[in-house]
Design a protein that fits this description.
four-stranded parallel beta sheet; single chain; Gyrase A, domain 2; 9% strand; alpha/beta
Length: 572
């Protein structure tokens, strides 16, 4: 068991001895914010004392009298208002690293309480190109899925594509009237987008076209064979293009249940909500009101329009019911941009009225926009939204130029492969690094820089360690770890925090925690490498111990980048 877990369990049982009725699940051990005071810290005693109106330092002393962690820690210290600070004994640190070197663990453990999480992410719309807005959902959602899976949770990834709605009326008019088959064959989504734009512009000017679109939609909804066939083709062609992007990004979905999947569930759902008194009629429409909720008081959720049509909310409620029934999840995570906050607040509030007893926790993991270097929404030079496929192509092209300048001696195919890994990695990392709720400025130069907090920097750090091993003839995984230099100790202790970082990322849905952890790891490795000779170490034991530190750093870098969906190459 990892040291922080051992400390945590012992602390929990010591607390139980002093306060038999306390909820010890809140007694946690986390990295100490300032290494001056220790390696790990627990602040739980202060809130326990507060609940009971006890003196927190006195409680801390009583608990310490029952706590024996002397096998792995120096003397435990009480600080401030009642923090407990723990410092690992060097021997315990070395033992943990030796176990990692033998691949017993990689500084994280699978959870003992696995949960089931459904993650709803990416969710592009049929007949429209995926744009940079979808990239954040895809990349964030994928990395959350990877983190939860690595920690041993059961994850269902669901791509809730937009494959139903009024736009199909216009698309059908366009498809029947002026489809360009040659264009459809080369760029299906581009052609469908053209049709949609053309007809929707006409609808604004010409009521006859609007009426034609309405009729095509009614026919589709009524199951007209021809319209259904065209609609299915539009979905299949779009899916093909989505899949090409997912392939490049290495993103996989367990299920793709688009909005249309819930179509026949909408009418019964509205009836059920009416019957249960959760929804009611209002000016001919049906809505859920949230009178008791100050934020949503003025924002009822519309679930049936006065013309009988259903809303985005209706589909989301039906989707929710289906997921509860099908997977019995502990958690459902929705990854979309911040503009959908009100929508999800409504869905979550409706869920409380409707399934108040459910154990499922719903989370809206929202994110800000991607801006151009002018601070305005990121657009192409001609002012159009940037297509994801063009963006990925440009990333690879730019990376290829950089790699070719730096490593002209490598064969063309290898440089191409490096450029692919670096280019895609840079785009993903730039998206994951900022606090997801803030907007970020898209900058090719920044994200592709070999210096700074970027994917290429981390990939390069990995490749550099690999090059040490190409030069080292020996270096065994059974090495005895000897930590003497301060840089070795700092690096070793940082390695130990990998698992805690993964857990924090999964808990708060924030991949930026892991980005920053890896960036710091690379920095600490650099100081170690500059100050502690590895291949020219003074003796064999030190050399092997340092090689083991190099190897562990490389393995954590690789595993951490993998959680971010980013690949590495052995040579750059
Ligand atoms: N298709 C929607 C869009 O492009 C996102 C769907 C998000 N998921 C959901 N369950 N509403 O904005």
């Amino acid at each position: 068991m990892l040291p922080h877990k051992q400390i945590e369990l012992k602390l929990q049982s010591a607390v139980r001895e002093i306060l038999p009725d306390a909820d010890v699940s809140i007694v946690l051990v986390r990295p100490c914010p300032d290494p001056k005071f220790g390696d790990y810290q627990s602040n739980a005693l202060m809130s326990l004392a507060k609940q009971r109106k006890m003196n927190p330092r006195q409680l801390a002393e009583n608990v310490l009298a029952k706590l024996d962690v002397s096998d792995i820690c120096e003397k435990v210290e009480i600080a401030g208002a009642g923090f407990l600070n723990f410092r690992l004994k060097p021997a315990a640190l070395a033992l943990t690293l030796e176990a990692a070197a033998r691949s017993v663990h990689l500084f994280f453990e699978k959870t003992s309480t696995p949960k089931t999480a459904v993650i709803d992410f990416s969710s592009p719309n049929v007949a429209k190109p995926m744009h940079v807005g979808h990239i954040r959902s895809t990349i964030l959602g994928d990395s959350l899925a990877r983190a939860l899976r690595l920690l041993g949770h059961r994850v269902v990834t669901d791509n809730h594509i937009g494959d139903w709605g009024t736009q199909f009326g216009m698309l059908l008019v366009g498809w029947k009237r002026e489809l360009n088959s040659a264009a459809l064959a080369t760029d299906a989504i581009g052609e469908m987008e053209r049709l949609y734009k053309k007809i929707s512009a006409e609808c604004k000017e010409n009521p006859a076209v609007l009426e034609a679109a309405r009729q095509e939609l009614v026919k589709l909804q009524a199951g007209d064979a021809e319209n259904l066939k065209i609609w299915r083709e539009m979905i299949a062609l779009s899916q093909k293009q989505f899949d090409a992007i997912y392939g490049r990004l290495d993103v996989k979905f367990d299920v793709t249940l688009g909005e249309s999947f819930y179509n026949d569930k909408l009418a019964p759902l509205v009836d059920e909500l009416l019957k249960k008194g959760i929804a009611r009629e209002s000016e001919g429409a049906i809505a859920i009101f949230f009178e008791d909720n100050p934020q949503l008081k003025a924002h009822p959720a519309l679930i049936r329009k006065s013309d009988g049509g259903f809303n985005y909310s209706t589909t989301d409620l039906a989707t929710l019911a289906y997921r509860l029934e099908k997977w019995n999840p502990d958690e459902i995570i929705y990854v979309t941009d911040g503009r959908q906050q009100l929508h999800f607040q409504q869905i979550f509030a409706a869920f409380k009225k409707w399934h108040g007893e459910s154990k499922a926790k719903l989370a809206h993991v929202w994110f800000g926009s991607i801006l151009g270097e002018d601070g305005k929404p990121f657009k192409t030079r001609s002012g159009e939204t940037v297509k994801l496929s063009d963006l990925l192509n440009e990333a690879e092209d730019r990376a290829f130029k950089i790699v070719s300048e730096k490593s002209s001696e490598l064969p063309d195919a290898q440089r191409k492969e490096i450029a692919r890994v670096v280019g895609i990695g840079a785009v993903k990392y730039a998206d994951l690094l900022p606090n997801r709720q803030s907007d970020y400025v898209f900058s090719w130069d920044k994200m592709l820089a070999l210096q700074g907090n970027t994917a290429p920097y981390l990939q390069y750090a990995y490749a550099r360690i690999k090059s040490i091993f190409r030069k080292a003839e020996s270096g065994s995984r059974e090495a005895e770890i000897k930590l003497a230099a301060p840089e070795e100790i700092v690096l070793a202790k940082h390695l130990l925090n990998f698992g805690l970082t993964l857990e924090a990322m999964a808990e708060e849905y924030r991949p930026n925690f892991l980005c920053n952890y890896l960036f710091e790891l690379a920095g600490k490795f650099t100081s170690f490498y500059e100050n502690c000779p590895v291949l020219k170490a003074e003796n064999e034991t030190t050399r092997n111990s340092r090689l083991a530190l190099c190897d562990l750093t490389a393995r954590v870098l690789k595993q951490g980048l993998d959680v971010l969906g980013i690949e590495v190459v052995e040579q750059m």
